[in-house]
Design brief:
about 400 residues, transferase, Polysacch_pyruvyl_Trfase, Rossmann fold, transferase activity, six-stranded parallel β-sheet, alpha/beta, Polysaccharide pyruvyl transferase family protein WcaK
Length: about 400
């Protein structure tokens, strides 16, 4: 007879500024607390203090901080960080034995967006190996995967994924990606993003229903390219922010109100930059129609989206939040995950990439989606119950085989 785990570690980039990551953690916590109320859960993450405060869960740091010992700091620097990484691995090896099961709940954990190999790729590798050496199962649940550009990051992340006893992905492109980098995926499954299992807030009335000008949501990301060291950082950012500003000014000039949307608190710099540019280019009168209060949780974000007719967004979980609220979305994205998700609800044609962002094309896409928004919303609302049914099937599998 299988022994149920008494202590589960939830591993990932949590306690962070990313609203989608925090919602993914919440979705898994809600499931475990509902289905296994007596099971102890600890979060292994980058922001343990915030995770404890926001989710009421015990939490430990994902990595060891550099000790405040002068000679260790010198030796560590001379040896390119190797002493700290070895010490950190020994710590993970010791701590891993305290848990019965490791779960990575959702998020795009298997990509290297703005990551050096010494960051999340190494930390994922370190903990998966520590779990394996302690004979503790390691599971990847509804995760996103790819791309992974750096060869060392790819090697570390693929090995970590190979050590998992259970792997499921939030879309087919993630499963296809890990197959192309050498994993056998015939037993791996595809289920929707975990966040779709959260309860959406009641939708407020839109502006049109209240006899006011329609509100359009525009998500803003602090984006400078996939690689944090790209020489084209400034050019990419200017193309993106400049295009968004042009689009927002067009909306304001044509009588729409605009609600700016945040998906991560670190996007605030670009968020403020767009507000300043719109004020300069459109004038303070038009800018008065711009709503720009940042959300601090995915629930806040969904409520803001509920005030809109549709949204234009870059971050994946902005798109997820829109669909959960029954709103159409247009993607100006940096990876294929947005377009793949939107294709499931008939909006796959209304996507473009940041690097090739064309504001005039976005205006044309917007006009088509806006005029057909009722039909698109019906299709979205019809799709959501099936997303949740598929997630329920995954929960049943996890309860029978892991939890």
């Amino acid at each position: 007879m299988r022994t149920r785990p008494k202590h589960i570690a939830l591993f990932g980039n949590f306690g962070s500024n990313n609203l989608g990551n925090e919602a993914s953690l919440k979705a898994m916590l809600d499931f475990i607390r509902r289905a296994r109320p007596h099971t102890k859960v600890t979060c292994v993450c980058y922001g343990p203090d915030r995770a404890r405060a926001e989710h009421d869960v015990p939490a430990i740091p994902i990595k060891l901080a550099l000790p405040e010992i002068w000679w260790f700091a010198i030796v560590n620097r001379l040896l390119a960080g190797l002493p700290l990484r070895l010490t950190d691995f020994v710590r993970a090896l010791y701590l891993a034995r305290k848990f019965d099961l490791f779960i990575v709940p959702g998020t795009g954990i298997l990509d290297d967006f703005s990551e050096r190999w010494q960051g999340l790729p190494f930390d994922l590798f370190k903990w998966s190996v520590a779990a394996k050496l302690n004979r503790r199962p390691f599971a990847l649940v509804s995760v996103g995967a790819g791309p992974i550009h750096h060869p060392v990051s790819r090697w570390l992340m693929v090995l970590a994924a190979r050590l998992a006893i259970y792997r499921s992905y939030r879309d087919d492109i993630s499963k296809n990606f890990v197959r192309t980098v050498g994993l056998l995926t015939q037993d791996d499954l595809v289920f929707p993003d975990l966040v779709f299992n959260l309860r959406a807030p009641n939708s407020p009335h839109s502006g049109i229903q209240n006899g006011r000008s329609p509100v359009i949501g525009v998500g803003v990301m602090d984006y400078y390219g996939w690689d944090s060291g790209s020489k084209r950082r400034s050019q990419i950012h200017e193309t993106y922010v400049g295009g968004l500003t042009q689009f927002i000014c067009w909306l304001l000039e044509h009588g729409y109100r605009v609600r700016l949307l945040l998906g991560e608190l670190s996007d605030k710099q670009s968020f403020d930059e767009v507000v300043q540019r719109v004020t300069l280019q459109c004038g303070s009168r038009a800018a008065a129609l711009l709503l720009a209060e940042p959300a601090h949780s995915l629930e806040d974000l969904m409520y803001q989206i509920g005030e809109t007719e549709l949204i234009v967004a870059t971050r994946f979980h902005n798109i997820v939040a829109a669909l959960m609220m029954g709103r159409s979305a247009i993607s100006v994205g940096y990876a294929d995950k947005n377009s793949v998700l939107l294709a499931e609800v008939g909006l796959g044609a209304f996507c473009q990439t940041i690097e090739e962002f064309d504001a005039e094309r976005l205006i044309a896409q917007f006009e088509e989606v806006f005029h057909g928004r009722d039909q698109f919303s019906d299709r979205i609302r019809n799709a959501m119950p099936e997303f949740r049914r598929r997630l329920e099937r995954q929960e049943a599998y996890l309860l029978e085989n892991l939890l």
